[in-house]
Amino acid sequence: MMPHREGHAMDRIGWLRAAVLGANDGILSTASLVLGVAAGRGSVSALLLTGIAGLVAGAMSMAAGEYVSVSSQADAEAADRAREIRELVEVPDAERAELIAIYQARGLDAALAAQVADQLTARDPLGTHLRDELGQHGATAARPVQAALASAASFAAGAVFPVLMVLVVPGGLLAPAIVVSTLALLAALGALGAWLGGAPMLPGAVRVTFWGAAAMAATALIGRLVGAQV
Predict the structure, then answer these.
(1) For residues 36 and 218, what is the distance between their CA atoms, to the nearest angstrom?
(2) What CA–CA distance (Å, rounded) separates 205 from 214?
(3) Are the beta carbons of 102 and 133 closer than 8 angstroms?
(4) C-beta separation of 189 from 208 below 8 A
């Protein structure tokens, strides 16, 4: 028989989460910044400076945040791995009993559970315990650099759109153009992220659009109030 290959959403969950979060934050935060300054009657140069500064600072912040966060996960995984290596050497019988109990809890009888534990352990003792005892495997492994790069690149890609809007849209139309284009992009991004993750697209688009509209409304109101005072 030909091997049956399947592609699962879990296989891309590591970079997908960081990329979707980065793009969403890049579009929304930069658009909100520009919209807030525009509501405060900022000049074109001020709007452009705000957008570029938001793009650079946000991309670096997202990269640093993702790297630190995912590195913490990687450290925890490494500590668990070291502990399993030590326990397999020091208390192999207890580790075998743990596996047998796990397989029995999944529905195997005692004899078959012991047979499965022995065969899997003979082939790859550490990998078997990491997978079946701790839930660690390649698809869920922490990759700090990949997460940081994906997050920074996607943030910058999302933030480019509001910056370009400042350059090409006349001042009087800038605010409504940013609102409409940002909501459309957020809806598309929410739908895309849901589709890549194997989830229904409509709920993903709706929730991102709702919170995006709320964020832009809040920053526009603050910009209008502060601009009136200044």
Answers:
(1) 8
(2) 14
(3) yes
(4) yes
- Residue 4: pLDDT band (50, 70, 90) is very low
Residue 77 carries which DSSP code? Answer: H
Residue 25: the pLDDT is: 86
pTM equals 0.68
The DSSP result for 100-133, as a single string, is HHHHHHTT--HHHHHHHHHHHHHH-HHHHHHHHT
User: 92 near 200, Cβ under 8 Å?
Assistant: no
Mean of pLDDT over the chain:
83
Six-digit token string for 128 = 């078997």
**Which residue, among 50, 35, 12, 23, has the nearest Cα to 141 in the 3D structure?**
12
pLDDT band at 53 (very low <50, low <70, confident <90, very high): very high
What torsion, rounded to 10 degrees, do the Cα atoms 134, 136, 137, 139 define? 140
Q: Give the sign of the dihedral formed by CA 151, CA 152, CA 154, CA 160.
A: positive
Sign of the torsion angle spanned by Cα atoms 25, 28, 30, 36? negative
64-to-13, 141, 147, 152 alpha-carbon distances in Å = 19, 19, 10, 9
Contact predicate 66/147, CB 8 Å: yes
Q: What is the pLDDT of residue 14?
A: 53
